[in-house]
Structure formats: structure tokens, C-alpha cells
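Example (one chain per record):
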Amino acid sequence: MPLYIKGDATARLVAELASRRGVTKQAAARMAVEAELRREAEVVSLAQRLAAWRQAHPLPPAIGETADKAFFDDLSGGL
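Predicted structure:
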């Protein structure tokens, strides 16, 4: 099935990649699409990155103190 590239800018980019790699325009287009698909498959979502970070850096256990106004006043020297 043929693929027609109608945009001049896209055609120039494919031609430049083909020239740099010493391959045909068809091979250059295939390499570019394959590279982009691999890159996209390797993307880790923000939720996954945050979950991994939280697992590596867990919160300390609760100490049972109530963080109310009196607690913070005591921390600041009772100002």
C-alpha cells in the first residue's frame, strides 16, 4: 500500500533523514516511525513515576502528636 506525503516540510525531513542515513526515503520513514513507536512505548506515566517514588521514599510512621495551634506555638517558642 503506497504512502503519499503531501506536505513539503515532511517530505524534506524524510529526504534529509534518508540522506544522513544513506537509505531510501521509504526506509527513512519506516525508521522514524519505528523509533517514535519505541519511544512512546517506553514512556512511564506520571502516576507510575509517583508510585515508584513514594515506594522508594515512604513517609515516616505517625508519632501520635496532634499538629494543632498549641503544637506549632510550642515549636516556635510560644510566640
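Caption: The chain has four helices and no strands.
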